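Below is how a single chain appears once it has passed through the pipeline. First comes the sequence as given, then the structure the pipeline wrote out for it. We keep one example in the README because the format questions we get most often are answered faster by looking than by reading.
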Amino acid sequence: MFINSFTSCSGCISNLISLDIFKDLLEKAEIIHFPFIMDNTKIEECDIAIIEGCISENEQIKLLRQIRKKAKKVIALGNCAVFGGIINLSKEKSGYPISKYIEIDGIIPGCPPAPKTLGNSIFQILENKNIKLSERNLCYDCPLRGNLNKRFDKEIDTLITEGIIGARAIPKCFLEMGVLCLGPITREGCSYECIKLGIPCEGCMGPVKKDYTATVVNFLSLIKLSEDLRKYDGIFFRFSKPDIER
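Resulting structure:
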């Protein structure tokens, strides 16, 4: 197994190392490249390559393609590798998903991926199975779902809540409170960790289907978003942005 990081905060790799199942990974898979724990820098043939981080420099493209040639399967680990990542909030740099440059065989989304999703994905990799992710959105089983009003008539004028700690202190769905939450278009699998802390979903698990930014744009066109929030690029480019000049 080949594990490599490109432009990232290394949070996804850190989560991987902290999993209880990581010891099983070390026992069942021969790790031939993993800068976090070994010095070998050679790119050798392997069954599986797990790649963390986005592509933000031209020299990274060559290395990525070399890895693809040597690996039977390539898995994108974390939001940066899957969608491009939070670097896209920058007006100076862009981060691209590894799938822009090579074919991939699976994704493990999240910023970082939730332990349950990451652990299940690693199990599936070790059993030589395709990674299976939920095809339901975050709202499906959200702790704040209650009697959800799907019309979302209230104007959305707030990005985050203030002074709320824990979902129990929140009376209803964020959207019904006028707080932007991307739960309706975000894949479930994060264990609702942000929601439980009283923080609305920012979409780090990405959409269930289709392009990230296009999905966000379509969703925002269906709700009453305030004029101020419509001017805030961070909503659209929080974790990805179109492959065009801004």
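The beta strands are 2-5, 46-52, 71-77, 106-108.

See the next section for the split statistics.
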